[in-house]
Specification:
hydrolase; 10 strands; Related to dienelactone hydrolase; Rossmann fold; two-stranded antiparallel sheet; about 35% helix; alpha/beta
């Protein structure tokens, strides 16, 4: 079989978005030598499960922290690692049209550098999360946005997590789907050059072929980044972002209850 890209490497569309309002409630710790945000469920609402969060190219920015807090409010202990080590893409580009913040910025070199680190760091981080925060009966889920999607697929090809989800993915090849062993939710935008209609349909064909449980959310009229970086002053973009989050939570609630 071939191994062509289905969700292409992140590009200019990954730099588009708005910052959401709110104060994150979590804390930080160092896990496997990587700074990690920890969002704790409210007392009395803990479901006993752990959610691994893999960020997009914006890293541990306010929107992502608030999303993690949202998962925590639903009962999950959420941990998200900063595999960019304080070096998110927004340090060099404020948005996709910006060429003034750092005119010499090499986006391709930046992606290569951080992908190499993340590929090595994530398995060690997951192992230490399990050792420090897991119990014998703990169940795990994982969610990734954009850059984080391959790490979701990698975990779903292993034995740790029970279910996973990603939104507006990047960096996915056919093998990521062929290797899946656990249920996957795909939260997708109609307008997305990294995961376009043809690639999305091919991914679904693979999931049907290997008979892994899956669900697809497909939102009309929104672009790559909708689940994290939409304009909350736009009622539809707010709705779509909330539906993505709610759908992923319900997906995890079901599979981790089985």
């Amino acid at each position: 079989m071939g191994d062509t890209y289905l969700a292409k490497p992140s590009g200019a569309c990954c730099l588009k978005g708005t910052i959401h309002q709110g104060d994150p409630k979590g804390s930080y710790a160092t896990i496997a030598e990587v700074e990690t945000y920890i969002a704790t469920p409210p007392q009395g609402k803990e479901n006993g499960h752990i959610l691994l969060y893999f960020p997009d190219v914006w890293g541990l920015f306010n929107n992502g922290l608030l999303i993690m807090d949202g998962f925590a409010a639903a009962g999950y202990l959420v941990l998200g690692l900063d595999y960019f080590r304080g070096d998110p893409v927004t340090k060099y580009r404020k948005d996709r049209k910006d060429r003034t913040t750092d005119p010499s910025f090499d986006y391709e070199a930046w992606k290569k550098k951080h992908t190499a680190f993340a590929d090595e760091a994530v398995p060690k981080w997951v192992k230490e999360v399990k050792e420090k925060y897991g119990k014998s009966d703990t169940k795990y889920a994982c969610v990734g946005y954009c850059f984080g999607a391959p790490y979701v697929c990698n975990e779903l090809a292993g034995d740790t997590v029970t279910a996973g989800a990603f939104a507006h993915p990047a960096f996915l090849k056919e093998h990521h789907f062929f290797n899946l062993k656990k249920p996957l939710l795909l939260s997708c935008s109609e307008i997305d050059h990294t995961f376009d209609t043809k690639s999305r349909r091919r991914a679904i064909d693979i999931l049907q072929e290997i008979k892994v449980p899956y669900q697809v959310q497909l939102f009309q009229g929104v672009e790559h980044g909708f689940a994290l970086r939409g304009n909350m002053d736009n009622p539809y973009e707010r709705y779509v972002k909330e539906q993505s989050l709610e759908g992923i939570i319900k997906w995890f609630d079901f599979w981790l209850s089985q």
